[in-house]
Amino acid sequence: MAAVIGRRLGCGVMVAALVLLSAGSASAAGGHHAVDDAGILGPGECEQESWYSRAQGGGQLVHAGAGCRVGPIELAAAGDLARSGGRSETAWTVQAKWATEVADGVSIGLAVQPALLPQQSPRFAGTTLAALATWKPRDDLAFHLNIGRDFVNQGPDGPRNGIAAEWAPVARWWLLAERYIEGRTHFVRAGARWVAGSNWSLDFSHAHRLSGPIPSRWTLGLTFAFGGED
């Protein structure tokens, strides 16, 4: 992540921690969740994702982004506003993601996501590169694996690894659990998603810090899908 992350995050460092390494990925595994799935939108489909995150100690992050399927890949862009200690700062991320099914219920993929901090110097914060895998043994159950790395500009690189599980115990409700490393911090996350309609959903989660400098946080997100081929 950034060169040194204190327990009380400064606004610029918080952006690097929660934007460069957040799940700015537009993922079917669930918007703000850290572990991405090996899946992309269908031909002609687009998706808008937004969320609000509040960290232990008061830091806040607002995210808004959208992505679309373009040929064999999914392209997405997002903006983030972080507030901490009475200061605010923006960040911009873009992502390219490819995925394909290699066996019945098994998919693999790749995702790359650079980040810019326009109010910092240098503006280029770094890039996250991750290999993705998803196993869906049945329609109401899925497992995800990410193995990646954060290549930080003018700072130490770090691992970007995680595992996740999704389960739908009843119609329209999904329960999610994650164990992952983000910004040299180990987390576990638990959350739930309500699929409110055919094209939109709400999700809520708590990421609990096990060790490392980035604090625990609560997040509420909204996802809206549109477009697609008839």
What does this protein look like?
- It is a single chain.
- The chain has 230 residues and is mostly beta strands.
- Helices cover 4% and strands 62% of the residues.
- The protein is built from one helix and 13 strands, in the order αβββββββββββββ.
- It has a twelve-stranded antiparallel beta barrel with strand order 1-2-3-4-5-6-7-9-10-11-12-13.
- The longest helix is centred in the N-terminal third of the chain and has 10 residues, at 11-20.
- It is globular.
- The termini are far apart.
- Mean pLDDT is 87; it is low at 1-16 and 18-28.
Summarize the entry for a quick read.
The protein has 230 residues and is mainly beta. 4% of the residues lie in helices and 62% in strands.
List the keywords.
single chain, 230 residues
Shape: globular
Radius of gyration over C-alpha positions, nearest whole angstrom: 16 Å
Oligomerization state: single chain
Largest beta-sheet details: 12 strands, antiparallel, barrel
- Uncertain runs with pLDDT below 50, 5 residues or more? 1-16, 18-28
Beta-strand content estimate: over 45%
Strand order of the largest sheet: 1-2-3-4-5-6-7-9-10-11-12-13
Mean pLDDT, to the nearest integer, reads 87
User: How many helical stretches?
Assistant: 1
Q: Please write the string of helix (H) and strand (E) elements.
A: HEEEEEEEEEEEEE
Secondary-structure class? mainly beta
- Give the CA-CA distance, first to last residue: 43 Å
Q: What share of residues is helical?
A: under 10%
